[in-house]
Structures are given as C-alpha cells and as structure tokens.
Amino acid sequence: MFQISPLIEAARRHVSMATHPGAVAAAEAKTYLYCMATPTRADVNPRWSDAVYTDDLHYVFGLPLTTVSSATQRALSLLVMRYWVNFIRSG
Fold it and tell me: Which of 15, 33, 45, 69 has an alpha carbon 20 to 30 Å from 9's alpha carbon atom?
C-alpha cells in the first residue's frame, strides 16, 4: 500500500494538470496505470514479499513463456503482453 498511494496521487495530479488553462487538452493527457500484485518469485526476492518494482517486466517480455513456469504465470504473461500491445496501438 505504501508504494501504491504515491502512484495514485501522481496520477491524480497528472489529470488535474490537464485542466489548467494553457495545459495540454484533457483528451490528450490521458492517464493510465495498473498494479502488478503477482510476484515473479525470482531468487533475489524474499519469499514473504509481494510483487516488487519491475516484477511486471518479466511478464511484459514473456519470460514465463521461455522458462519453467506455471500455466497461470504463462497465461498472465500473455495477458500482460496483450495489454501493453493494445496500449501501444491505441493509447
């Protein structure tokens, strides 16, 4: 929760900045965010920890598809990659 709260506040400020006179139009200043709660369980992370900063990159770049991973991890990786591709295509 400690890492999520500043992120949400930053997103709110980004959205509010778009409504000031002279700022980029609100339609052009869309704000997107997501929360990755599934840890990669990499050897460098303690077992008791939740997902940490950059854990999502394992899924974005398809690491579970090329290593010994559970079916759930592979499905999550495919889903995250699809989300990122759709974002790149259409914002």
Answer: 45
